[in-house]
Amino acid sequence: MGTTGRGAHIVWDWNGTLLHDIHAVIEATNASFAEIGLEPITLERYRELYCVPIPRFYERLMGRLPSDTEWRLMDAVFHKHYWARAEGCGLAEGAARLLAARRAEGRTQSLLSLAPHEHLVPLVRRHGIEEHFVRIDGRTDDSHAGKAERMVRHLAALEGVTAAVERVVVIGDAVDDAVAAAHVGARAVLYTGGSHSRASLETAGVPVVDSLEEAVVVAEQFVA
Question: What domain of life is recorded for the organism (predicted)?
């Protein structure tokens, strides 16, 4: 698999980018907050405070870092509520069409997510888009660090892409996606449909867009 001469190789994020799950995230967050005695949070405040690694997000909410015991409880309770809702989430507007069109044009794309791999792959498959990716990588460990080192491993597993990293563009909904892209020398485009406010995304110093279609246009302009 190579990318030379065939436009950008896009590394897509999943949650909040291809999967339109922000409302499920908010519902699960507030359900988990109710169980652990925290006040509910609005979508706007969530987008203002959200960050990776996730314990830092809770620090912004609580005024202190959660203990390891608190964090394990928070994480387990959130995921219990989130996965009960994830099945009902649809893809972002235009996502399936964009993925299919790029594949038909001979462009390559892959998927790198912090979602657990064993949950990610069946969900991608159920949405009927698995065939559009040359590789799908979810989280296979208990670490909640960001994507930077995972991006290194992801690209290393893609034959031909690491040799042409200038053609790699990461599309995601979080500042961490831009950090991971910069870590490997790639470009990034950030999308406002997920976990961050536009103001938060703009701190990353990369293009910020309001649709996946626009994200793909910008990605291809990077390598034109």
Answer: Bacteria
* Cβ contact 54:176 at 8 Å: no
Question: Of 157, 112, 163, 164, which Cα lies nearest the Cα of 139?
Answer: 112
pLDDT tens-digit profile of 187-214?
A: 999 999 999 999 999 999 999 999 999 9
Six-digit token string for 178: 């831009």
Give the CA count within 13 Å in the CB-facing half-sphere of 71.
15
pLDDT tens across 64-102, in order? 888 888 888 888 999 999 999 998 999 999 999 999 999
Query: Does residue 53 have a cis bond before it (omega within 30 degrees)?
Result: yes
Q: Are 170 and 222 in contact (CB under 8 A)?
A: no
Q: Give the H/E segment covering residue 191.
A: strand 187-191
